[in-house]
Amino acid sequence: MKVCIVGAGITGLVLSNLIEDSVIFEYGKIGGKIQTKYYGKFFVELGPDAIIFDQKKIEKIEQTLGSIFEKKNFIRYNPTFLYMKNRLYMIPSNFQEFLLTDLLSFFDKIGFIWNFLFRK
Question: Which of 25, 67, 71, 92 makes an SS bond possible with 97, Cβ 3.0 to 4.6 Å?
């Protein structure tokens, strides 16, 4: 069977890696809907920005595609924000911030803690 993967979004790149085939894409368009836009001192990730695989598959993808992607070093304590309903929310990075965030209701926080402590 012959396969032609057109598009270098996250799906096209991962699929071409998994079937060990080529991908056709427009020059400068790697990433598909995933884009980074800069606004002053902030940057915003647009589109899907995560993909979940087991560690071995991630390592294989990094080995094959690593040189294609720009490596960025981020300082761990830099806050991450979510823009939702015309408001900017800081994503909690520790337990205290989790308790104080407006992103989740009181009951959502209790449910999350309950599931974390008593999960099977």
Answer: 92
36 vs 70: which has the higher pLDDT: 36
43 residue type, one letter = F
Rg (Cα) of the chain, in Å, rounded? 19
Question: Between residues 75 and 29, which one has the greater pLDDT?
Answer: 29
Domain spans, the chain: 1-72, 75-120
Pairing relation of β-strands 81-84 and 87-90? antiparallel
Token match 């060990």: residue? 20
The amino acid sitting at 96 is Q
Q: Which two tokens stand for residue 9?
A: 């979004």
Across the chain, what does the average pLDDT equal? Answer: 74
Sign of CA dihedral 71, 77, 82, 86: negative
In order of 52, 61, 62, the CA distances from 55 in angstroms are: 9, 10, 10
Helix H or strand E encompassing 45: strand 42-46
Q: What number is the average pLDDT over the span 39-52?
A: 68
Tokens of 90: 């800081």
